[in-house]
Design a protein that fits this description.
Elements: H1 2-21, E1 40-46, E2 65-73, E3 79-80, E4 87-88, E5 91-92, H2 93-99, E6 103-110, H3 118-122, H4 125-141, E7 146-151, H5 157-174, E8 179-185, H6 196-200, E9 205-209, H7 237-246, E10 254-259, E11 261-266, E12 277-281, H8 282-285, E13 293-298, E14 303-308, E15 313-316, H9 320-332, E16 337-341, E17 347-348, E18 351-352, H10 355-363
Parallel strand pairs: 1-2, 1-16, 2-6, 6-7, 7-8, 8-9, 9-10, 10-16
Antiparallel strand pairs: 2-3, 4-5, 11-12, 11-15, 13-14, 14-15, 17-18
Helix pairs in contact: 4-5, 9-10
Length: 364
């Protein structure tokens, strides 16, 4: 009988200890996803999605990190913050993330207009000092756990030197307590000016966008994120990762990109000329099955695509099967984790269709 009571008490106190470890308190910032063994599952949350998908609706139980995108610099180093960026429906994104056991980074830069002034700003030391000051104050004031710098893209040797100097000043300002990541493109063409050895000491992680290998800029239609190269491919995920590894990125500092979107082409097959192309969210891709599209699998590229039955359109994208293969590759090579662009792209009928499967695969 005494043994029985002892066993019951042991179970009760063990349960209490576990509950204490996983408690989510925004003040103490406990970020325990105990099942992940320090493996990062990072999701991008774009500010333009906040109105439709406020932070309270984010499936934080499938994320370890949230990347809040985007704020961006002007040429003088001022930080441009879009309207309602911090508070969506009167709720702080950082506060909600922390209450749900998730670290949150502010992403600075991005594609298009969000990176227009990096070059001019980074080449002017007065502007750089202003930028570093504004960024540091913004992070402290709004309770972020760090930042991601997404300059798309350095295009010269001087850009590369200025990037290194900028990261050094950010690290000196923020110290080691805060995370600093660098977002980079998954190709040699857009990554060649970054000096990995020089910037590594100031960074926690390199976040590699292993997607956008084909699009409206390409000569031929192709896969958005082909795992392997194939005829007429511009590049592939494997080639992109090999490029950054050869430049010196350590596996433990590499975060691998997973696209929750695809790319369409008015082309009857992969590797053909086209005139129109656009990005499509995964949730949009899922609606095409009932509109005369058939799912195909490219054995060479090792990714799926859709083909229109009676028309010229093809859509390259990733599904649960291809994402599982990529996560297996990430874990086999002991990379730091994965990132997702972006976490509202797979919401179908109010529920994330891909995110739970990605998390469970990462957890295994």
């Amino acid at each position: 009988m005494k043994l029985y009571i002892f066993i019951i008490l042991t179970i009760i106190f063990t349960g209490c200890a576990k509950a204490s470890k996983t408690s989510k308190n925004s003040k103490t910032k406990v970020f325990n996803k105990v099942t992940m063994d320090n493996f990062i599952v990072q999701g991008y949350y774009p500010y333009w999605a906040q109105k439709k998908y406020p932070p309270e609706t984010i499936a934080f139980n499938y994320l370890t990190h949230l990347s809040h995108a985007f704020v961006y610099p002007d040429s003088k180093g001022n930080l441009i913050v879009p309207k309602n960026f911090i508070n969506s429906n009167n709720t702080s994104v950082s506060e909600i993330a922390h209450k749900n056991g998730c670290k949150v980074l502010v992403c600075i830069g991005g594609g298009g207009k969000f990176s227009d002034h990096f070059r001019e700003m980074a080449g002017n030391q007065v502007a750089v000092d202003n930028f570093v000051n504004k960024v540091s104050n913004f992070i402290l004031k709004n309770d972020y756990d760090g930042l991601e710098l997404d300059w798309e893209f350095p295009k010269s040797e001087s850009d590369g030197r200025n990037l290194t100097s900028l990261l050094r000043k950010l690290r000196n300002s923020l110290g080691k307590k805060f995370t600093i990541n660098l977002v980079v493109n998954g190709t040699q063409y857009l990554g060649k000016w970054i000096d990995v050895k020089s910037v590594s000491e100031y960074l926690d992680y390199f976040v590699i966008m292993t997607y956008d290998y084909h699009g409206s800029w390409s000569e031929f239609s192709g896969h958005n994120a082909p795992f392997y190269p194939y005829p007429r491919s511009d590049s592939s995920v494997k080639e992109g990762i090999a490029f950054w590894r050869d430049k010196g990125v350590e596996p433990s500092k590499l975060i691998f990109g997973l696209p929750f979107f695809g790319c369409s082409f008015d082309s009857f097959s992969i590797g053909r000329k086209f005139s129109k192309s656009k990005h499509l969210h995964y949730k949009k891709v899922q609606t095409l099955f009932e509109k005369g599209f058939v799912k195909m699998w490219d054995e060479m590229a090792d990714v799926p695509y859709l083909k229109q039955k009676n028309g010229p359109w093809i859509i390259s994208y990733d599904d649960a099967k291809s994402l599982k293969k990529k996560i297996g590759y990430v874990k086999k090579n002991k990379f730091a984790g994965v990132m997702i662009w972006e976490i509202t792209s797979d919401i179908v009928n109010g529920t994330n269709a891909l995110l739970p499967e990605v998390f469970e695969e990462c957890k295994r």
